[in-house]
Amino acid sequence: MNFSIESAVEILRQTPYTLSRMLDGLSEAWTHEGGSRENWSPYDVVGHLIHGEETDWIARAEMILAQGENRTFEPYDRLAQFERSKGKSLDELLTEFAHLRSANLEKLVRWQLTDEQLDLTATHPALGEVTLRQILSTWV
Question: What CA–CA distance (Å, rounded) separates 49 from 45?
Answer without folding.
Answer: 6
